[in-house]
Design brief:
381 residues, alpha+beta, 29% strand, OB fold (Dihydrolipoamide Acetyltransferase, E2P), D-amino Acid Aminotransferase, Chain A, domain 1
Amino acid sequence: MPPSPRSRPPRPAAGHPRPPKGIGVEPPIEPMLAKLTDALPPEGEYLFEPKWDGFRALVFRGADDVFIQSRDLKPLDRYFPELHALLLERLPGGSVLDGEIVIAGDGGLDFDALQMRLHPAASRIEKLARETPAEFVAFDLLAVRGKSLMAATQAERRDALEKLLADSEPPLHLTPATRDRTVAAEWLEKFEGAGLDGVVAKLADQPYGPGKRAMLKIKHVRTADCVVAGFRWYRDTRDAVGSLLLGLYDEHDVLHHVGVTSSFKVAVRRELVHELAPLRENALEQHPWKDWARANGGGTRMPGAQSRWSAGKDLSWEPLRIERVCEVKYDHLQGDRFRHAAVFVRWRPDKPPRLCRYDQLEVTAPYALEQVLRASSPRRR
């Protein structure tokens, strides 16, 4: 199985419902975005919310239909038919909500199950909708009963959203929110155990800014020492490295592909070609991923496999002898791999590859997803 893709779904096939009209805010609308920071803002009037790890979605409820839009401005309705029906039933006409589509598993949010829903076969989607139904967590309100709220402040929109969803029941949820930094710090510490992705900070007096990075997202930052077992070329070139393939050993001394690091300037990408050249010589002869296709069938995560996420994309890779170690920053794991691309920190010439193991990683204490959702009622203001 390939490394985790970005959390934006691919373009859906034709045949989706047409966006509703006359609802105060016409689709498509670019969602307001967040910029990453490593700490809660020390001052200022902010509303803090948990950062959900799912598919960002805007919901447009017209007079007699619903349109669910992805972050990339594409329809999502066919992938989540159970949500389409639910939102049509539960929301009043003329409403536009911003939120996150999630799937809850035994251990909290299950992003892998969410990815499985992006399937070309309607029969497969319907089966998964019954077996692993999705839920919608609302965290902003852009219009209500046909009136746009985009010029209203964040605090005013939150008040309107709380009134709209005062009697909401699962699988339609209102995200928790607080103005208390102490509470937000507790959420940042605990909620990751339920599969959440950090905390979001929104200025209380700010209007909704489509496409603008007007919010802050705060995530945990951790480091790990990883084996550099291969690389991919940069785009279509052969004179620059695009990403380094990272590996960690498990308790059986099997090297698993856990992700990539690709945060390099162009000049560094070119330097890496020469720096890694000696490690390419005879690299495949004793490489632990030489037979990755067979090993993948046995559950070992390896690079290079095609999927519906990577159709048409060149995922070929160049093996390297297992001699180099680098330190990377990562936020959290998704199963046994890094959820997002890791950030290169430095080379670790002092550390043998065999010591790059899973047991170095921080283990997050489990936390019940129900307790996260319970924090939204009564209001924490």
